[in-house]
């Protein structure tokens, strides 16, 4: 039997702005844990956030998770996409820009892997620019290092916060930690 504690550590972002978002995120997290090549480590508290780079009246619930997996990066991406689809996510090639969604699972990091393929870029190219990703990730992995920038998650969060325009959608006042049980 393989020692799963030696499997690479992956960070994912979870988000939803349609349906019972908190329940969807928890159910998706549990579905990930049912895969034989994935061991769940930790899930952040959820955050309620305004939509970013899209027009929508539906706020998001966002969280971050740490897991270990023996899967390749692209195989792990396939698992995330399959779970999104299982939970009602529809990706239409005709739709431009970001859309409302029942579930969004983004692969952010896998250990110190740097990868750029047609399907996947690691670390996630917008990781250091997204308050709704950095805040929950800092709750569970503050010292985790960005492999390209050489800064910890908490350093990236600290650097980002003063750059946010008070009128923009990602102002810290537009991001609040909530409870999993509410809804």
The biggest beta sheet reads: 6 strands, antiparallel
Mean pLDDT reading? 88
> What is the H-and-E element order?
EHEEEHEEEHHE
Form type: globular
Structural class: alpha+beta
The overall number of domains is 1
Give structural notes.
The structure is a single chain. By secondary structure, the chain is an alpha+beta fold. It has one domain (4-177): 7,8-Dihydro-6-hydroxymethylpterin-pyrophosphokinase HPPK (Alpha-Beta Plaits, 2-Layer Sandwich), CATH 3.30.70.560. Helix content is 25%, strand content 22%. The chain has helices at residues 21-33, 73-86, 131-140, 153-160, and strands spanning 9-16, 38-43, 47-49, 60-69, 104-110, 115-116, 121-122, 175-177. The strands form 2 sheets. Strands 1, 2, 3, 4, 5 and 8 form a 6-stranded antiparallel β-sheet that branches. It has a two-stranded antiparallel sheet with strand order 6-7. A hairpin with a 4-residue loop joins strand 6 and strand 7. Helix 3 (131-140) runs antiparallel to helix 4 (153-160). The longest helix has 14 residues, at 73-86. The radius of gyration is 16 Å and the shape is globular.
